Amino acid sequence: MSNANLPTQGGATALAERGASRQYLTFTLGGELFAMPIEQIREIIEFGGMTEIPLMPGFLRGVINMRGAVVPVIDLAVRFGRERTEIARRTCIVIIELEQEGQMLLLGVLVDAVNEVLTVEPGQVEPRPAFGARIRAEFIEGMINLDQRFVIALDIRLVLSVDELATLIGMAAETGATAGE
């Protein structure tokens, strides 16, 4: 890709001139194509079942044991306000490593299928749309332009905001406790 098409404002041109591309893992969720930067991805595992936890919000599908560590699994479709992910032959769990208050946390993300790793040049990433996306705008880092089609690049730190998820889990626990009275 030629650098002539790149915007001259901000750091995009400087990044392109240094050849700074970024890699994204693409995956399918509910028939749509999404991408997330590979920097936070620790590994991808085949879905082999999980332990469900009662009284948790729908987006927290359960936990898995990963070499002795308990890893919560988030159903990304439910997190986006959609129906639960149906478990199928290609269903995978993408293990994400996030830093929270100086320590590394592991979270699993349930997706329909993992597709490929793309190397994306800065000029291929368009700003997120102000409207029209079927997920919250702040979850979108940008739109990757791939030959007349777009892939939604997620800002995985916001999608999996540990503080927001903890608040939602706390609210679900309170609702469950109130319902049981």
Brief write-up:
Residues 21-165 form the CheW-like domain. 18% of the residues lie in helices and 41% in strands. With 181 residues, the protein is of the alpha+beta class.
Topology, pairings included?
Layout: H1 12-17, E1 22-29, E2 32-37, E3 41-46, E4 60-66, E5 69-75, H2 76-79, E6 92-100, E7 103-111, E8 113-120, E9 125-126, E10 140-146, E11 149-154, H3 156-159, H4 162-179
Query: In which range does the helix fraction lie?
Result: 10-25%
Distance between the termini: 63 Å
Instruction: State the CATH class.
Output: Mainly Beta
Shape designation: globular
C-alpha Rg, in Å? Answer: 18 Å
Low-confidence stretches: 1-18, 175-181
Strand arrangement in the largest pleated sheet = 8-1-2-11-10-9
Number of DSSP helical runs: 4
How many domains comprise the coordinates? 1
Order of secondary-structure elements: HEEEEEHEEEEEEHH
Assign the CATH superfamily. Answer: CheA-289, Domain 4
How can the largest sheet be summarized?
A: 6 strands, mixed
In CATH, the architecture is Beta Barrel
Task: Give the CATH topology.
Answer: OB fold (Dihydrolipoamide Acetyltransferase, E2P)
Number of strands: 11
Broad structural category = alpha+beta
Average pLDDT for all residues: 79
Strand-residue proportion: 35-45%
